Input
Amino acid sequence: MKKLLLSGAATLALTAQVATAQVDEDAPTGGNMIVTYKDDVATLDPAIGYDWQNWSMIKSLFDGLMGYSPGTTELRNELASDYTISEDGLTHSFTLKDGIKFHNGRVITAEDVKYSLDRVTNPETRSPGAGFFGMIEGFDTWNAGEGDGLSGVKVIDDKTVEITLSRPDATFGHVMALNFASIVPKEAVEASGEDFGREPVGSGAFKLAEWSPGQRVVFERFDDYHRAGVPKLDQVTFEIGLEPTVALLRLQQGQADVPGDGIPPAQFLQVMNNPAQAENVVEGGQLHTGYITLNTQMAPFDNLAVRQAVNMAINKDRIIKIINGRAVPANQPLPPTMPGYADDYEGYAYDPEKAREMLVEAGFADGFETELYVMNVDPNPRIAQAIQQDLKEIGITAEIRSLAQANVIAAGGEADQAPMIWSGGMAWIADFPDPSNFYGPILGCGGAVQGGWNWAWYCNKELDARAAEADAMTGEENAEARLDAWRQIYLDVMADAPWVPVFNEQRFTLTSDRMAGDDSLFADPVHIPVNYDYIYSKDAE
Amino acid sequence: MQSYLIRRLLESALILLGITLVTFILLYLVPADPARQIAGRSATVETVQNIRDQLGLNDPFFAQYWRYLTSLLQGDMGRSYLQRAEVSELIASRLPASLLLMVAAIATELMMGLTIGIVAALRRNRPADHGLMIFSFVSISAPQFVIGILLLYVFAVQLGWFPIGGYGSFAHVVLPAVTLGFLGAGWYSRMMRSSMIDVLGQDFVRTAQAKGLGRARIILRHVIPNAILPIIAMIGIDIGLFMSGIVVVESVFGWPGIGQLAWQAIQRVDIPVIMGVTMVSATAIVLGNLLADLVAPMIDPRIKTK
Output
């Protein structure tokens, strides 16, 4: 097994070197790859698709102005040849590359950029990503259905777009690299209407060749792609409807190359104990944290000492054993692969003895009864049981409420319903590699509303203000200070202990013998499971 | 006959109407909010509210139901909340696979079940009977998932006779059909056996023996046609069952049927798709039963269609 060790601050330093070293420009082109999935692909419309399966598929079909260097969290220009930010951080100018084309052969112009941004923020599009563009001037009125587009997005000429923000925002580059900011051709969107998600036309490295619902989706190389020598493969076939166990059988028989849903838990040890297969597994970090929320507005979790005691009661190593060691223990909201992670922070160490004492001091000598909500898909109920046992140790009796995902999310969005929630299977994986992405919806006051995702109902106005300040720190020269500010915000969150951070999931990507490319491409933080554009087939050599 | 058919069809329409109402009420009462499922985890409260408005989810229950019903009667099942595609297209793209598997599975379970049931009845209380009944007991109790994976492993992976899941050729349908047929065969064989034993003990069988008919002729001409009636009713139920989606078998074999679609829609509270799939399976169950009731009098003239 190959481990990709990029962690904390080291990530930033390393990515720069990795970015240049990893992409083998001379890798042969040609060949194909078969990726398997259990679920059908929901949609390939970049304004709408928002699950882990279609996210990286859309990345290969569409491009935005910005993107990431393969295998890294480092921003780079994609369709933009040039990107400049004004002194005050409010005006962002993008110049398009020359001669870039959509899959339908038409040249991309600045008008397309405006059209695409207007479309994703148009309330009629019902895009789950509209809220990401809240910093663009005119967003509020346009997203409320007034006017004729984002007033902050101006077409200067065929090649130049100027985007004005209503507030400086250091994350804007990342926002423009989200799938939601992909450039789409107006004529194709209008021709397909609501069916654009089935008939996508973009400017990505691949174009859609076939879609048989429930069976397969086929991508074909786009010959006019704006990066020479990319993609490496001629074709990627997604075989749909295969149970992960069956997908593994197929891979072992040479009939599949990447099991998109990962190695099934029941077969994990079998795969890892087989040296020939273990060699084809790449382990990498994920921008993920699994945590227990403690509802700070419900007794007795409104008591800081109780929340801290629970933090000390959870045996994280034992929980990680339940998932075959496919994670690392967490002590703070940010995962180790995220810039801003505090390497030297020790967190609340496992100490049930001390936890029990703290409960007694807080006036709960006899413990108390509470409820733990959990999504009813394995391994989450088993993890909840381990948490239940740990709580029992310190005298807390937690009843497990195991429900369908949508019902747990609904319970979390009510102020007085779920005292504790295990986030597994629901939250939180970052949308983009920036520390701010772990705050707003899940720890900020804005998320502590009915229907929100701040299930701890934690609202610290002072931290909210500091978060806003940190995001206003734009420019390269402030990058380090900004990360420091965010690091401190999360450490202060932990002082209030609204969560028990439990673990950060690791990715284990298995591929067939045929697939090759730098390891980082198989543990790409942005493309899951693999970076379809850059890995290549040994058959092509 | 004709008036019977018309009455039954009218009844069926009423049943289906009732099913739309009940399903709609249930989906309305589910605490999960479809707008939040569409909006995803990073959406603002405003975005969720806007989605709810656009889909009319804020309207009172009867307004929503009426809107659904009137478009349904015009043949419009709406669009999937999540895939944005027409529900009718999503279902239509999966119907052929579901129909094919249904036919193949029913054929398999009948072939296996009837053979076992007949042999067991004729060898009643002898070792062959005991052996076959143990087999049928095992096949009823075995989880489909285990049988499916086992067949896949032996016949597709080890022996390489069949593809490892998928859809497209005759070879693809064999293993899923056998997996389903294996389970069904257990039920059919038990039912056929007891039905045969009933008929074998009746006076007309003794009469036939007394007038000197050959054993084979008695069994084929008199016993089996009489014993098969309950089986016909059961096939009617199976048609509905298989058309409502066989989630486990479909997912083991990567079969692009209705079950896969239904399962995903339920996970994500995709109401138009859930409604659509429910309508299709309810229609299949109603029609399957109607078919069984129509076929029964053809086999046994004593039953009249009233």
